[in-house]
Design a protein that fits this description.
Number of helices: 46
Strand content: under 5%
Largest sheet: 2 strands, parallel
Low-confidence stretches: 4-15, 469-477, 733-836, 844-873
Helix content: 55-70%
Length: 873
């Protein structure tokens, strides 16, 4: 007997408990009451019903005249459609009704009207003259609506209209009335609107008109009695300065900014400071050194005594300020400004006391939030400060500050410095090794937001870490970073354990750069098996695909044939022949990546037969996915070397057409047959139409061959010298031996047969040159964001497919299950020489392999096993 569950044991049917249940039921009924009340009565439904025979224009007029507010709002929202459909009738009948309704309309209808008027302008439904005549007065009438949101909506619409109106219309309809609207006798809201309109009008008139009619209004508003108006006008001075030119800016705008920077209102001083920073490029060196620098110095000195919001703005504009004033600082001013920045970077950290937030007064919490914003802005400006102090002085001047920002207790600060980490690495160049430890710190950060920000440029950062700097220091770059691999693996496991699968997917995609950073053995033992595990066990499809593609790239640049064959065998056995249909689907995804990343011969040799054998899969989804992949599979074949593979492909498609019982799969098979029929196939010799694709494929094949030759040379060197070539030496030689990336210069026009028709030279000099070339190719593949991988065509043209429908009645081609045999091993490159346990096919027309001599069970037909296989959902 099991004891009753705690919930059942705790049930109490006492009187108090029953009263509690009754109260809960009453609350539920109260919640339901508004739902019942919201139902419309028959009378209300009758009032909302409109005759279906009315046209759109007539229905709009009726609803605006006699309908309810929600119906009128719907008509106004539909106004752009009516203007596109029948502009003349809309302007004649509907728009007058809109003018009547808007003065008494509610907020929602007003906001809808502002958006609709702006949409009509953007869609050019009518001419500018017609728009100004019909809509402009309505917009101007509602600019000073009592609701601030409505007023701002109409103002945004007007500012967009000003961009396209002719000068005469602007002068008569907007500028002339603006003289009275900007007077002190008008409301504050009217003067605020006037400030924003003046800032927009400046770019529409010539300098003489601006000086005579606009600048007097600007000066008047800068001296307004309300600080809100002065602040608003101050922020428009930047637009005005761009419209009036340098001379008038110096004589008119700069004196106003100087006076406003001393204003009693903190928001006005802040607006003046930000406008000065944005206009630094307009002023010459004398103005900057004699006028602006003293103002900035005074502003910085008083900032700690003023409101924290000023510190937030100051810290945000610090980088632009340093750039604009660079070169006019004295050494003492330069040092003081740098110390000011360092002080901002640690602002608020001295007050950390570990108390519970519930015990801290609200004003202190608000102050701490502002301090966090200041430090976040300092992290944002850190690259600019490196330029300010010169990267050569980074270690002495800014390293301790960088350390503090990377270890800041607040996530937004660390997140921002993680975003800037790549820029910092580029600026440091040869000194990038100084921030190795901070890279590890951010990779190990407890917040996934920080990790997500860092990995956006992780490949570039790691490449700078491994290649940047002087040659004398270069050999110690990665050896001085022993924690890199543990940090990378821990970051991946932390992302995998979270619910943020997009971060996990992105991290796996960025791991594709690792063959360029660390050794092949390190990838094989620390990362490759993890990719397998993710593909087999993860529940998120994009994550599985990212792991699959990264695994293919790891395989592409693996330098040991034994390891490569082991990976291929695991892909075929655990995915392609896996018990779960989900794994077999992932195998087809992997085949697609193999076609993209590897040469055609590699795919045909190892993956062609395991892929097309899935035409016998018992699960319809697998067969369906294979049908979508078949055109890409066919694109890997070359005629006449792969004629027997083409026949096997045709046989599989024929069997699908004849034996497929699932109607969805059969429909896709029929479409696939038509697509295969239209495809043209590549030939062994170069064809003009496929020249670039064939050249790219030959480059891939040659890199794969040279990687194998390099492995053979390393084995010979190990036997001769008794020690292997270190990865450090290999990386150095790979960088020193770069070849031009122009394929046409480095690859002969005639394609040598993969079987190696020419006798290979045994001289050590030729082998060494091959080693150097292979090292160079391995290096080139990862430059320009690993361009070879991204530029691989997803679809390759292939050639002359015999229609399957035509093969259905012919007996010329006789294929049995024995056709699924290994390809001629004597006709393939030595680099692709498979291990006995791997299924393989070969290009060429050599004698077929004797089935008795092949000990691989995987090369035998899988029809019987596939029939008996049960798929796991």
């Amino acid at each position: 007997m099991h004891p009753p569950p705690p919930a059942a044991a705790a049930m109490d049917f006492s009187q108090n408990s029953l009263f509690g249940y009754m109260e809960d039921l009453q609350e539920l009924t109260i919640i339901e009451r508004p739902v019942r009340r919201s139902l419309k009565t028959p009378e209300e439904i009758e009032r909302l019903t409109v005759d279906e025979d009315l046209s759109d224009i007539e229905r709009a007029v009726y609803l605006l005249s006699a309908g309810q507010d929600i119906q009128g709002t719907s008509v106004i929202a539909n106004l752009p459609f009516l203007m596109r459909q029948n502009p003349a009738e809309t302007l004649r009948r509907v728009l007058p009704k809109v003018r009547e309704v808007l003065p008494v309309a509610g907020v929602e209808m007003q906001l809808t009207a502002a958006v609709s008027f702006l949409t009509i302008l953007q869609e050019d439904s009518v001419s500018i003259h017609t728009y100004a005549h019909s809509f402009l007065q309505v917009i101007l009438l509602h600019l000073e609506h009592r609701d601030a949101g409505v007023s701002n909506a109409w103002l945004e619409t007007l500012l967009s209209v000003i961009e396209v109106l002719p000068k005469e219309t602007l002068r008569h309809e907007i500028l002339n009335p603006l003289v009275s609207k900007a007077q002190l006798s008008q409301t504050v809201q009217s003067r605020l609107v006037s400030c924003k309109i003046l800032g927009k009008l400046t770019n529409k008139f010539d300098a003489h008109t601006i000086k005579r009619e606009i600048l007097p209004l600007v000066k008047s508003l800068c001296q307004d009695v309300e600080y809100e108006v002065r602040s608003c006008m101050c922020r428009q001075l930047e637009n005005i300065a761009q419209g009036i030119g340098t001379e008038l800016t110096k004589s008119v705008v700069l004196p106003e900014l100087i006076e406003l920077s001393r204003d009693e209102g903190s928001s006005v001083r802040l607006a003046a400071f930000e406008t000065l920073v944005n206009l630094l490029d307009v002023f010459d060196t004398d103005d900057r050194s004699q006028t602006i620098l003293p103002l900035v110095k005074s502003f910085c000195e008083k900032s700690f005594k003023a409101d924290e919001s000023i510190l937030i703005s100051l810290s945000f504009h610090l980088g632009k300020l340093c750039h604009g004033l660079y070169g006019i600082f004295t050494p003492d001013q330069h040092l003081r400004f740098l110390e000011f920045y360092k002080k901002l970077c640690t602002l608020g950290l001295q007050q950390e006391n570990g108390h519970n937030e519930n015990q801290i007064p609200p004003q202190i919490l608000e102050q701490e939030k502002k301090y966090i914003s200041v430090r976040k802005n300092c992290a944002y400006n850190f690259p600019a400060m490196i330029v300010f102090v010169d990267p050569k002085n980074f270690h002495m001047e800014l390293y301790s500050t960088f350390f503090c920002l990377c270890h800041d207790p607040e996530v937004p600060v660390r997140y921002t410095i993680a975003i800037c980490f790549y820029e910092v690495s580029k600026l440091l160049n040869s000194g990038v090794y100084l921030i190795h430890k901070e890279l590890i710190t951010l990779l190990q950060d407890e917040s996934l937001e920080v990790l997500d920000a860092l990995i956006d440029h992780l490949p570039e950062i790691l490449e700078l870490m491994s290649t940047g700097g002087e040659s004398s220091i270069q050999e110690n770059k990665l050896s001085s970073l022993p924690d890199l691999i543990p940090a990378l693996t821990a970051a991946e496991q932390r992302a995998a354990a979270s619910l943020k699968w997009r971060t996990h997917e992105k991290l796996l995609q960025k791991y594709a750069c690792l063959p360029h950073i660390i050794s092949s053995d390190q990838i094989y033992y620390r990362f490759l098996q993890r990719m397998f595990t993710i593909m087999m066990t993860n529940n998120v499809l994009p994550v599985q695909k990212a792991a699959s593609r990264t695994l293919c790239i790891f395989l592409r640049y693996n330098r040991k044939q034994e390891q490569r064959h082991e990976v291929i065998q695991k892909l075929i056995e655990q995915l392609g022949q896996g018990k779960s249909y989900w794994n077999r689907l992932r195998f087809l995804d992997t085949c697609e990546f193999i076609i993209e990343i590897f040469s055609k011969s590699f795919f045909c040799k190892y993956f062609f037969l395991p892929a097309i054998e899935l035409t016998h899969d018992p699960v319809a989804n697998v067969r369906m996915k294979l049908c979508y992949l078949l055109p890409k599979v066919k694109s890997t074949l070359k005629i006449p070397a792969d004629k027997h593979l083409l026949q096997q492909l045709e046989m599989c498609v024929r069997k699908l057409l004849c034996q497929e019982k699932d109607k969805d799969v059969l429909a896709i098979v029929k479409r696939t047959v038509l697509e295969l029929d239209r495809m043209e196939m590549s030939m062994d010799a170069f064809q003009k139409k496929f020249y670039e694709k064939d050249l790219l494929d030959q480059e891939k094949e040659r890199e794969e061959l040279l990687l194998m030759e390099m492995e053979q040379l390393e084995k010979e060197k190990q036997q001769n010298d008794g020690r292997p070539m270190s990865d450090k030496t290999f990386e150095k030689k790979r960088r020193d031996a770069k070849t031009p990336t122009t394929l046409s210069k480095s690859i002969p026009i005639s394609v040598p047969g993969p079987s190696g028709t020419s006798t290979p030279s045994t001289s050590k000099e030729i082998k060494k040159s091959k080693l150097i070339r292979s090292q160079s190719f391995n290096n080139q593949a990862f430059h320009a964001k690993y361009g070879n991988l991204d530029k691989c065509p997803s679809k390759s043209s292939t050639a002359g497919y015999t229609p399957v429908s035509g093969l259905g009645k012919t007996s010329v081609i006789s294929l049995t299950d024995d056709s699924f045999r290994a390809r001629n091993a004597s006709s393939i490159p030595t680099s692709f020489s498979p291990s006995p346990s791997l299924p393989s096919t070969s290009r060429g027309t050599g004698n077929p392999v004797d089935p008795k001599s092949s000990g691989s069970k995987d090369t035998q037909p899988r029809k019987a096993t596939l029939k008996s296989r049960k798929s796991n959902p």
